[in-house]
Amino acid sequence: MLKVSRVTSGYEDIEILHGLDFSVEKGSIVTIIGSNGAGKTTTIRTLAGLNPVFSGEIHFLGTPIHTLAAHERVEKGIVMVPEGRRLFPSMTVLENLQLGAYHQEAEARLEKTLSEVYELFPRVKERSEQQAGTLSGGEQQMVAIGRGLMSLPKLLMLDEPSLGLAPLVVQQIFEMILEVRRRGTTVLLVEQNVQKSLSIADYGWVMENGEISIQGSGQELLSDPNIKKAYLGM
Questions:
Q1: Disulfide: which of 2, 110, 170, 176 matches 101 by Cβ 3.0-4.6 Å?
Q2: DSSP per-residue string spanning the chain
Q3: Could you tell me the pLDDT band of residue 8, with boundaries at 50, 70 and 90?
């Protein structure tokens, strides 16, 4: 589905990613783990078109997209749910969801997609007329993921979806990620909860200093002694 070839990227003239090479298979859950500052968020921002590609190429479903603007990539099916949720707090939950369906195909399917989001997140449906800023952190994260789904993603990229949430809510979020994949959406997950993310991932990458240092299946990485020591405290 996604192929990244020798990509360098960063902010202004500061290079953060150094020649990334990787691919994402259709229908999979892939996770990126690593310490703060390793380049995880920069990677998905670059895929989303929010950071420029200095060099290299990104192909999505066989088509080069590295020269496309961010909104054009959304129309192709690449959708990012940012860290911190980034909802519009004074707007209702429903209004926040509707904003996800801004491009032509998504707008045409708005009602159908909205019913699917409500089916996936019953709590969001209950809160649909509330201002988004009045929701709990877990409820806001559900709305943020729901808004992403309203854009009809083929590849849904989630940046730290469990950050700051209670353990029970974290479990619910990860169960929802599995359900999103079961419904046919490929997921690329950046997550600080290494145990949880690798346990649901088909494949994972460990990033260090803007490069992928270790890769393998989720279970392989979970059992790697270096991963256990560095990220799991074992």
A1: 110
A2: -EEEEEEEEEETTEEEEEEEEEEE-TT-EEEEE--TTSSHHHHHHHHHTSS-EEEEEEEETTEE-TTS-HHHHHHHTEEEE-TT----TTSBHHHHHHHTT-SHHHHHTHHHHHHHHHHH-HHHHHTTTSBGGGS-HHHHHHHHHHHHHHT--SEEEEESTTTT--HHHHHHHHHHHHHHHHTT-EEEEE-S-HHHHHHH-SEEEEEETTEEEEEEEHHHHHT-HHHHHHHS--
A3: very high
Asked whether the predicted pLDDT for residue 234 surpasses 80, the reply is no
Confidence label for 228 from pLDDT (cuts 50, 70 and 90): confident
**Average pLDDT of the segment spanning 206-225:** 92
Q: How far apart are CA 67 and CA 229, in angstroms?
A: 40
Q: List, in order of start, the domains of the chain with CATH numbers.
A: 1-77+156-163+186-234 (3.40.50.300)
At 122 the pLDDT is 94
At 233 the pLDDT is: 62
Q: Is the pTM of the predicted complex or chain greater than 0.85? A: yes
